[in-house]
Amino acid sequence: MRKVSKDKKSGLAKKYLSGVKGNKRSELSNIIKKMDKLYKSGKKIPKSLMDKRIKLGSKSKKTKRSNY
């Protein structure tokens, strides 16, 4: 099997950080690592942390497209 391509700075798989640049990228990687640490230790992951991850990872919608 092929190895998953990883980000050089954070060591996370690139697919989790795709589409994010600069400070947002490092902030997102820190949040993912924090969530991973909490999950592995058996603790509850706060909703605020999940919301922040979703907000950083989502693409912004600048214009609305119509179906016409």
Report on the architecture of this protein.
- The chain is mainly α and 68 residues long.
- It has a domain at 14-56.
- 44% of the residues lie in helices and 0% in strands.
- It contains two helices and no strands.
- Helix 1 (22-40) packs antiparallel against helix 2 (47-57).
- The mean pLDDT is 88.
The shape is globular
**Structure classification:** mainly alpha
Per DSSP, the total helix count is 2
**Total strand count, please?**
0
Share of residues in strands? under 5%
Percent of residues in helices comes to 40-55%
* Mean pLDDT over all positions: 88
Oligomer designation: single chain
User: How far apart are the first and last residues' alpha carbons, in Å?
Assistant: 44 Å
Radius of gyration, taken over Cα atoms and rounded to an integer in Å: 15 Å
* Unreliable stretches: none
Give the helices and strands as they follow along the chain.
HH
Described by strand count, sense and barrel closure, the largest sheet is: none
What is the secondary structure topology, with strand pairs?
Elements: H1 22-40, H2 47-57
Short description:
With 68 residues, the chain is mostly helical. It is 44% helix and 0% strand. It has a domain at 14-56.
Labels describing this entry:
single chain; 68 residues; mainly alpha; 2 helices; 0% strand; globular
